[in-house]
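Let's practice the habit of predicting before peeking. Look at the sequence and jot down your guess about where helices and strands might fall. Then scroll down.
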Amino acid sequence: MKIKIDIDPQNEDTPVITIQAQEWSTEVEAIIRHLKELETAETAPKRLVGTDGERSVILQPQDIDFVYSTNRKVYAQTAEGILELKLKLYELEEFLGTFGFIRFSKSVIGNVDQIKRFELSFNGNLCVFFKSGAKEYVTRSYVHHLRNQLIEGGGNRDK
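Done guessing? Here is the structure:
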């Protein structure tokens, strides 16, 4: 791989990246994925703040079992309890994706690293038990994605 950088005061304000290759490859895909992660990392929140009544708590992603929305509010389930978050669920999915969180259902995003065990429900859903003792369900449409994520070992963040 060759890298060429052109620093010139007459260039555009916004950096332009051009990738030249004979064909689409996993290397090109990895570069694009990394660039997108850098772009979202700049605009994403740097830390999460949860509230419990009058108390505000700074949350580390690894301390969260799962995030869910109900009644137009978003909550984080931790070992210590439930905290309300001010971000939207889709914003949290983007931010927490690099920390091992994946979609469990339309209203739940779970931390794969905090999973202790699974149980299959009679209706095809998967009951996930977390290390903290909390439990949540993965709907049938998301079970396959969770299975793939576990087989792959958590995706890019392990590399």
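How did you do? The CA atoms of residues 7 and 15 lie 10 Å apart.
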